[in-house]
Write a structure and sequence with these properties.
The protein is α/β, with parallel strands linked by helices. It is built from ten helices and 15 strands. The structure holds S-adenosyl-L-homocysteine. S-adenosyl-L-homocysteine (SAH) binds next to helix 1 and helix 2.
């Protein structure tokens, strides 16, 4: 079978999330500390007030993983309804345990037409990217056949990079962000990637916390790509929305009181103090998750500065 690389990645990840426990392979911010989800809940609550506090507000999460981010957020903000966009039946089951009463959807297009706050942590990085490689004759697109790359000449509007350069285009992520923009959602995207896009390959496969072969044994490792925030911002603007940020995760979490909330919890539960201190450190240290991870909001045109994006 010959598959375009993004189709291969989509198939591999669908199989991976349907069958494996992703948290055996990698750790995400809401799994590290309850404060992460509480801060997102606080953000959603203020954002909702800024929207004029619509009674029928939906809190929607894309790719909710174990459901713990939402469970933590709901202690701070109680929306009229909770919606999950999740394709993995296995993870839906886990999410239902932590968040009773949630409603599941296959795609954003299936979420009802009501006022929406949308959150997505480490969701866009799981969506499939197309990969192009520059050869002497021009740009080629990468396909996959039997565990190897195959290159097919293609007409594509990309910069005139040096031979051997790789470019990635995340059409699925751009389409998702544009759809959120068209819906008039207030959306918060947290993911890892550079502010400016550049040439280079970022796709990686992770199994048991270690790098694995991307093309071998699809479905047994998590395949992800850096999120190109500039391209996503452009997609949101082209769809008629405004964009705030991206800002670094450490700036965002610090502005929203990560350390104060951590100190408060540590005083109440001294046995957890060391754990909370290490968790806050891991979420904000530049050499850990503080700097590579970025936070970007998409909002209706002219919307006031949202919490964490005021400067
Ligand atoms: N947000 C969680 C989980 C991140 S893992 C956390 O921070 O811990 C990626 C999540 O996105 C998983 O829940 C996975 O099943 C889901 N997912 C991946 N591709 C998807 C797709 N195309 N549509 C909907 N959900 C998807």
């Amino acid at each position: 079978m010959i598959e375009r690389f993004d189709h291969f990645m989509a198939r591999a990840n669908a199989a991976y999330y349907a069958a494996r426990d992703p948290f055996a392979d990698f750790v995400t911010a809401p799994e590290i500390s309850q404060v992460f989800g509480e801060i997102i809940g606080g953000w959603a609550r203020i954002a909702w007030e800024m929207m004029g506090a619509p009674r029928d507000i939906m809190l929607v999460e894309a790719g909710p993983g174990s459901g713990v981010l939402m469970a933590d957020a709901l202690r701070v903000f109680k929306p009229a309804s909770v919606h999950f966009i999740e394709t993995s039946p296995r993870l839906r089951e886990a999410q239902g345990q932590l968040v009773p009463g949630a409603v599941w959807h296959e795609a954003l297009a299936d979420v009802p037409a009501r006022p929406m706050i949308l959150i997505a942590n480490e969701f866009l990085d799981a969506l499939p990217v197309r990969q192009f490689i520059r050869r002497a004759a021009g740009w080629m697109e990468r396909y996959v056949e039997a565990g190897d790359y195959l290159e097919v000449p293609v007409e594509v509007a990309l910069p005139d990079d040096p031979e051997g350069s790789v470019r990635e285009v995340n059409e699925a992520a751009e389409a998702f962000v544009a759809a959120a923009a068209r819906r008039g959602a207030l959306a918060l995207f947290i993911d890892y990637g550079p502010e400016k896009s550049s040439a280079g390959e970022s796709v990686q496969a992770i199994r048991d916390g270690k790098h694995a072969n991307k093309l071998a044994e699809p479905g047994t490792a998590d395949i992800s790509a850096h999120v190109a925030f500039a391209a996503l911002g452009a997609a949101a603007r082209a769809a008629g929305a405004d964009v705030q940020g991206p800002v670094k995760q450490n700036a965002f979490l610090t502005a929203l009181g990560l350390f104060q909330r951590g100190d408060f919890l540590a005083r109440k539960n001294p046995e957890k103090a060391e754990y909370l201190r290490l968790a806050a450190q891991r979420l904000t240290a530049p050499e850990a998750m503080g700097s590579l991870f970025k936070v970007m909001a998409v909002c209706p045109k002219g919307f006031a500065a949202l919490p964490g994006f005021e400067t």
